[in-house]
Predict the 3D structure of the following.
Amino acid sequence: MRVNQRVLLSRQGREVYVTATPSPGAPAGEQAREAFAAIGGALREAGGFVFQERIFAAEDAFEAILRVRQRLWPDLDDGVGPVRLISPEGLHGPLAGVQVHAVCLPEPPKVLRSGPAGRGRLVSLNGRHHVALSGLSAPEAGDPESQALAVFEEADDLLRQAGGDLRCVARTWLWLKDILSWYDGFNRVRNAFFAERGLTDGAAGVVRMPASTGIGVGPAGGARCALDVLAVVGSDRPIRYLEASGKQNSPYRYGSAFSRAARSPTPAGETVYVSGTAAIDAEGGSQHLGDAARQIETTLANVRAVLAEQGCGDGDVVQAMAYCKNPEVEAVWRDGWGDLAWPCVTAVSDVCRDELLFEAEATACPGATEA
């Protein structure tokens, strides 16, 4: 069992990032018991409240995992469920890992609701509202593109409860089941919605595209699309969008409306969000076709170049994800980069192009320390 805890501390409070990757070879219930006991202990000791939570696991393992979580976390559950994301069983076993971002403040976050359902959380500090939306999905909307439109609309509605809108978003995660069959359609929906809501306006020179990951990790429960959001609502518009960064130009040049990274205030300091990144060159072409090791090496170099531009290194990374196209790529990743200092969960999933074998993302907090 590997548990990594990173802490960002300020006079206002603390943010705690906990990443748990269970030992392989055990059944789902046992892996879940290890993970949630360890994370729960860390949060209780720190006095932390969950702000965002994700579970990556095989689809048929979720029933056992959630049963264990409910038993071990009766005091930590505020009614906003964890984001349940399907990672087919690979070398990690049925549970790939759990990620929790928590805040340690005098009062718990306010729960944001769509009807009776808890869909996100809000923390108010120093005239700003920090918002986390988790696992927005709309399977009832119909085809995949309609589901994508519905989750963007719901996110905008929830942000309006906090006095903001999508122009306040620093980071999104788009969990897209069967991504290769509809990624072009997804991009059409996102591009049009962002233009309509003022995130992209070439005539006015306005670009407020969030950092983002769009990946072939499907949400559990049958939806084709789910959305997570981190946003900051404030009159000072404090988020910096890095449309092009490191070794890569803007993905908007080839039809994807997101920035390579964003830098944003968070409840205890500042955070750099590096978008989902693959072995793509400055012109938008895929590199090292068929060579998993070189794609991984190039991807990590691309992520580190963005971090370096923001004054961050490996030691500042508080959470990361590695997405491997299949178990064979996962084996290359684990054999060659198993000692990487990032707190990282590895999931088996398609990337947005069939020839891309690997993708990575990183969240970094300058000044964070390992607990």
